[in-house]
Structure formats: C-alpha cells, structure tokens
Amino acid sequence: MTSPFDAPSPATAPIDRDANAQYVLPLVVRMERATPPGRTDALETSARAVLTLLSDPRVTGADGEWAERVAAWEDARIRKVVRRARGGEWRKAGELPGITVTGESAEVRVFPPVPLDGWPKELAKLQVSGTDLDEAAPPVAPAAGVPVLWLNPELEMSAGKTMAQTGHAAQLAWWRLDEAQRKEWAESGFALAVRTAAPAAWAELTASGLPLVQDAGFTEIAPGSSTVIADHPALRGA
Predict the structure, then answer these.
(1) Overall number of domains in the chain
(2) pLDDT at 12
(3) CATH number at residue 98
(4) DSSP tag of 24
(5) Is residue 7 part of a domain?
(6) 220/224 Cα distance (integer angstroms)
(7) Residue 12 covered by a domain
C-alpha cells in the first residue's frame, strides 16, 4: 500500500518536494496462506523495519552504499509501499539487498529506496492489495516506558496502508531523537507498541506536540488525514 506523507526531512525541506526526484521505500510482508501474521504484530514489525534500515551502517556510514539513495528519498515525499509475498515470491525477495525483521508472527523485509518508476522486477510484480489481517487475540496494554504509535480511532485503513503509516510515525520519532536516544532505542531492539487510541486520548495527543503523521491522501483516506502519533517517552515535554 502506497503512503506518501508531508513531513520534511531533518536535513532539508524544499519548497516543492514534488519537484525532486521521487523515490519509494519498499516493504514486503510475508503472508503465507496457512500462517498469516497478526495485524498488530505486522504493524509493529513494519515500524521496526523502517527504524532498522535508518540506523543501518549502510545508511549512516560516510561511505554507506545506501546513504545516497536514502538521502534522495528523504529530500522528496517520504513514500513507503507495502506489498505482500508468499512461498517462492518471498524467497526471491529475500535474495535482493535488504533487511528482514521478524516479530512474534510477522516477517517484514525492507529494501533501500528505489526510484518511483524503477522497481526491481522481483518486487514490482508483488501485490499491494490483499494485506488485510486479523488479530489472534486483542492486544494488551503497552508495557510502561515503551514507545507507542497511536492510531487514529476514527480512521479505517487496510493493514498494508496502516503498516506504511506506522513506519512513517517511527521515522518521525527517529528524526526528533538525539544520538544518545537513538542508540538507546536501537539497543532495545527498537521496542515499540502499536495501539488504537481512545477518542478522548487522541484529541489530547494531537495537541501534545508529539510527532504526527498527516497523509497525502493518495489512497484510502482523505488528504491531510492525521493517522498516527508517535509517543516516545524521550519526546514528552521536549
């Protein structure tokens, strides 16, 4: 599911980011017919996959092989596309340069950004639709001190769309942290939770100054819709 959003990159905020070369961050979720992942686990795993890529030495290193592409991606709209794969499709996707992140039941592979019209053939043929997922059990309350990505309770989105949105929220939080805070989060394995906020809590969160994702509205929801708020303890009162 495609999901560009309107937050500027930490380094530059061009007046018209649509005029820049457009890149997209591909994410592929493994969806075997007999053992699909739980919805919340897939949402959390996709967010951790984005953070794992952003912190990878191939991105952060001075001579990182993915650094230039990530910088170009961040200078335009921060597009993410979630596709699904199973069986041989998943194995072929795993042969491309990328990082696979696992959750309790979910597996998500994230790839370095590619030009919007330049997808590798192994990924271009994968389906975007059909990423609806169920919960094995209702999610429990998040553990104390764990960053929470709060979903807007008034929106209905497919699992694929929501996976892109939680990736956006995690990225916004990452940009707001200092190096020490980033290191601490990485050392925790990027511990986080994804939950749907209560309506009253959502209203408070939107006024809190915490990172807020507003979708460009190209798919599923209206332009400017607020989708996810990243509630990282280090950003409270920052």
Answers:
(1) 1
(2) 44
(3) 3.40.1490.10
(4) E
(5) no
(6) 12
(7) no
Q: What is the pTM for the complete model shown?
A: 0.90
Res 215: pLDDT: 79
C-alpha–C-alpha distance, residues 101 and 107, integer Å: 6
Q: Diameter of the chain by CA atoms?
A: 48
**Residues 6 or more apart in contact with residue 60 via CB below 8 angstroms:** 54, 67
Q: Which amino acid is at 52?
A: T
SS (H, E, C) 184-203: HHHHCCCCCEEEECCHHHHH
Q: What CA–CA distance (Å, rounded) separates 211 from 189?
A: 21
Query: Are the C-beta atoms of 56 and 99 separated by less than 8 Å?
Result: yes
Contact at 8 Å (CB) between 18 and 77? Answer: yes
* ∠ Cα 211 212 218 (to 5°): 140
137 close to 197: Cβ distance less than 8 angstroms = no
Encode burial over 123-159: b for 16+ CB neighbours within 10 A, e otherwise: beebeeeebebeeeeebeebeeeebbbbbbeebebbb
If phi > 0 it is left, if psi is from -120 to 50 it is alpha, else beta; for residue 15 that is alpha
Range of the domain at 125: 17-235
Band (pLDDT 50/70/90 cuts) for residue 225 is: confident
Residue 41 lies in a domain: yes
Q: Per-residue pLDDT tens for 193-217?
A: 999 999 999 999 999 999 999 977 6
Q: How many CB atoms sit inside 10 A of residue 11's CB?
A: 9
- Whether 158 is in a domain gets the answer yes
User: 144 phi and psi, to 5 degrees?
Assistant: -60, 135
Instruction: Tell me the torsion sign for CA atoms 46, 120, 4, 89.
Output: negative
